Each structure stands twice: as structure tokens, then as C-alpha cells.
Amino acid sequence: MIEQSFSESLEDRLAANETASSVYWLGQAGFAIATPELRIFVDPYFSDFLARKYAASRYSHARMMPPPLKPEKLMNLNYILCTHRHGDHMDPEGLPFLANQNPECRVIVPAAELSYAMELGLAEPQLIPADADKPITLHPDLRIHPIPAAHEAHKLNAAGSHHFLGYILELPTGVIYHSGDSVPYSGLIERLRRHQIELALLPVNGRNPALAGIAGNFSLTEAIDLCRMAHIPALVTHHFGMFPFNTLDPKEIDSAIRTEQEVQVYRAKLGVCWRQS
């Protein structure tokens, strides 16, 4: 895996022809994956919905970084994967906008959140429900394996469907794992080892007991350990730099980049992409 800088706009990058697979950070837990055939988003958050929703709350949800692109210029999206219903993952304003802009795009959501997705204004024909451990072939060049995520804990509905998911994406150029919001849980390592994953996209903002009612994620150490034990050679760390109360000092990640010997650790940043070497 190599990290490459670019100077053009992200919109232009996503509109250009691809010869391999490129992964771009969209902020928070959001990523764009561009392949020769497809444009895929995972958990894009482009609006200020949460800033308004929590304007009077103790914890400000004002954005610390602007959206890295203009959603109105995105006209070639094929798939949007949402890991769970929290507003910075299933954006109540940005997601319906993207779906309307890209009518051929399909939006994959946890089956447990299908009704909620329709409440947001997403049309049922555009929606594909996903259940843990039920792979979906979306395209000849894309097969996804939804797996459970534990946003500090697993959450299932009465039908046994998980509200929190991660996705393993099988592409012609390799396998990528986006955990969604999660912490380590029993059996996760074994699930991941089955897929020969080459790149993991993991949140590293950790867990803070002082943030009562706000579920956390992997710590940086846990994310690196997971990759090491699951034999995943490269990790892009994310879920920081968006909300002041729920972030991580980038210097901690940079320190791990310098010292980690087994896993290639990258800090998510704008203006770069990650490609297979």
C-alpha cells in the first residue's frame, strides 16, 4: 500500500479514469473508493445536521473540518454503504441528497435500519438491506460481506438483525475492511482472517467514560493490535478531527506510524489517496 498526494479537487479525482483502486478520506468515518468500474462511498457525512441537532447540548457537534468536496458535483456514484444510523454515518440530509443526485446509485444499509432509511426520504428501490454474515454481490467487481460491529456493544432487533455493521469489500484489486463504529469483540479476529484483507479502515477515537451515553470505538492500540492479529498489513486510522469532544490528537497517530513495525499505519488526511503498491 502506498500513500500518494494530489493537488486537484477530489471531485476531479473521482471523475477521472482509474487504473487500480484508490481510497480517499471524506472526514470522520467517511471514505470514497474509486476503482476502474465503480465509485463507492462508505459513511459520508457532508451536512451540518448534527451541529443543529445538538446546538443546545453540552457537547458541540460543530464541524472541525469542512466537507472535502461539493456533493452537488457528484454524479457518478454507484454505491453508498452505511454502517449504522448515527447521523455522522447515515447523514439525514446529505444521504438523501446524494441518492437524488445519483438515481442509479444503490444505498446499502443495515436491514435493522431499513425503515429509518426510508423515513429519511430514501426511495425503497434504491435501498439494499444488509444483514451480518449474508454476503451480497452488488456488481461483478464488488462483493460485500457485512459483519457485526460492536459500538461498545452489539445491538440486535427482534428479528435478530444487527443495527451496527462493518463491511468487508472484495474488489478485483484487493480486499478492504471498514469496521463501522466498533470495539474489539470475541470472534472478530477469526472473521477477518478468513478474507485475506489488505487494508483496514478503523476508528481510533477510543472510549471515554466521561462521555456518558456517547459510545466509543477502538483505541489506537486496539486498532493496530487487531490488524496485527488478523494479518491485515495496512491500516488507515480515522474518526477524529470532526467534533471537538470526540477526537484524537493526530500526534499520537504519527508517533505510532514511526514506531509500529508490523502494520503499515496511516493517518487519514485530505489531499492524499491510498493505492496498492
Task: Tag the structure with descriptive keywords.
single chain; 277 residues; alpha/beta; Metallo-beta-lactamase, Chain A; 18% helix; 26% strand; globular
Report on this structure.
This protein has 277 residues and is of the alpha/beta class. It has a single domain (2-275), classed as Ribonuclease Z/Hydroxyacylglutathione hydrolase-like (Metallo-beta-lactamase, Chain A). The protein is built from 7 helices and 15 strands. It has helices at 10-15, 49-53, 94-101, 114-119, 188-193, 220-229, 250-259; strands spanning 2-5, 22-27, 30-34, 39-42, 79-81, 106-110, 127-130, 136-139, 142-148, 165-171, 174-178, 199-203, 234-238, 264-267, 272-275. Strands 1-15-2-3-4-5-6-7 form an 8-stranded mixed beta sheet. Helix 7 (250-259) links the parallel strand 13 and strand 14. The longest helix is centred in the C-terminal third of the chain and has 10 residues, at 220-229. The radius of gyration is 17 Å and the shape is globular. The model has no long low-confidence stretch (mean pLDDT 94).
